[in-house]
């Protein structure tokens, strides 16, 4: 009985220590020479806002195109409750990303959560930004399973 209690206590302490170490490393120090701004092709994090019409129209265009081509008559109609959930969450030496979430209204009257990220220098030929997105309940290939959580930054999962 005592061994089982001791073993359970040790496992719990290890889990707590691992959680604390993960939280401590999420705000790690980045040498200024290794920041994304100091690369050969610098990335400054100048990204459009989550509710920017260009961002939402790109999502709408790709969503409507994909649905019409592969799945059926669903079309994006409107967005609401758009808010940011992270900006450069992995540190200053990674590609700048702005993570956002909100709701998307479809032409069948349904509302779904949408998670997306606006990413710098990942557009056409690495010149501009692009958007990576997932609509909860419509991730048919389970690319961001479960429930689009993999389209969100780590701490928000």
What does this structure look like?
By secondary structure, the chain is α+β, with helices and mostly antiparallel strands. It is built from two helices and four strands. The protein has a four-stranded antiparallel β-sheet, with helices on one face. The protein starts with a helix and ends in a 22-residue tail after the last strand. It has helices at 2-25, 53-71; strands at residues 76-87, 97-106, 111-119, 130-135. A hairpin with a 4-residue loop joins β2 (97-106) and β3 (111-119). 27% of the residues lie in helices and 24% in strands.
Number of strands: 4
Topology as a string of helices (H) and strands (E): HHEEEE
Summed up, the helix count is 2
Q: Level of helix content?
A: 25-40%
Low-pLDDT parts are: 14-25
Percent in strands: 15-25%
In the sheet with the most strands, the strands line up as 1-2-3-4
**Which descriptor suits the 3D outline?**
elongated
Structural class: alpha+beta
Mean pLDDT: 82
The radius of gyration over CA amounts to 20 Å
- Characterize the main sheet: 4 strands, antiparallel
Q: Alpha-carbon distance between the termini?
A: 37 Å
Key traits:
single chain, 157 residues, alpha+beta, four-stranded antiparallel beta sheet, 24% strand
Give the topology.
Elements: H1 2-25, H2 53-71, E1 76-87, E2 97-106, E3 111-119, E4 130-135
Antiparallel strand pairs: 1-2, 2-3, 3-4
């Amino acid at each position: 009985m005592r061994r089982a209690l001791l073993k359970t206590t040790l496992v719990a302490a290890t889990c707590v220590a691992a959680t604390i170490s993960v939280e401590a490393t999420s705000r790690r120090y980045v040498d200024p020479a290794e920041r994304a701004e100091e690369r050969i092709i610098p990335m400054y994090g100048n990204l459009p806002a989550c509710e920017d019409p260009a961002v939402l129209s790109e999502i709408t265009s790709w969503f409507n195109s994909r649905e019409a081509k592969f799945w059926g008559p669903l079309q994006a109609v409107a967005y609401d409750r758009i808010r940011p959930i992270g900006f450069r969450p992995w540190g200053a030496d990674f590609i700048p990303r702005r993570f956002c979430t909100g709701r998307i209204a479809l032409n069948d009257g349904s509302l779904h959560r949408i998670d997306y990220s606006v990413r710098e220098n990942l557009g056409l030929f690495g010149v501009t930004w692009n958007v990576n997105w997932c609509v909860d309940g419509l991730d048919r290939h389970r690319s961001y399973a479960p429930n689009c959580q993999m389209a969100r930054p780590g701490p928000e999962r």
